[in-house]
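Chain particulars:
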Amino acid sequence: MTNPTIPTVTLNNGVAMPQLGFGVFQVPDEETEAAVSAALEAGYRSIDTATIYGNERSVGRAIAASGVPREELFLTTKLWNSDHERAVEAYDASVERLGMEADLYLIHWPTPGRDLYLRAWEGLERLYADKRVRAIGVSNFRPEHLDRVVSQRGIVPAVNQIEVHPLLQQRDIQAADTRLGVATEAWSPLAKGGALLAEEAVTAIAERLGRTPAQVVIRWHLQQDRIVIPKTVTPARMAENLDVFDFDLTADDLAALDALEDGTRTGPDPATFNGA
């Protein structure tokens, strides 16, 4: 299944998910079809979108036009915060826009102030029981949210997609994922580039290895067993981000990148975010 050069992570229900995928967060709808088409042509076989991104139709069009067999692809979309009480209906709407069922469906945010994520999870469990989706999971869930789902519902999430990069490692959440058998998937894995990719610790490793700073950071994720979904609309960078399987970082390299932690977020704090 999938591109043989991309390793897979076996989720807790036995489903294999490519460890490196392509994200379309903040890609404008009018640019998404071309971006996903280019990503598929470059060799990506996992595509990550969400209802709130407003580009599910374009993702679906790109997949349909690609000629890549559906069974070779892994497609993720997400349930938005305002739909926690109508998860099945919201998924139906995503399927209509995508033109196909997803492989992985995630609750996008716990929005603890609303306290409806257990209701949402019940809906996802129904979709999974009906074999409408191959795996179900969550996004931006903290340990207390994960523990509550696991203790009160029947299915352990397969994936927890959280913001992770060297500046914000969220080790408490990663430890909870590991304890519960949940795969950690990193969004914003390059911390929106810029400052992180200019850090001396990153550039020195890149120079020594003859690699780009982005490749070094992606490799840091992969060697710590995270699933990662870097985003770019530039075909050359798509290829660059995929060319990360023929080198290794040393233990010292990994430690140097770990030491960059400073708590910098690129997105909201899931402990307090309750956005519509």
Q: What stands out?
A: The longest strand covers residues 74-79. DSSP finds ten helices and ten strands in the chain.
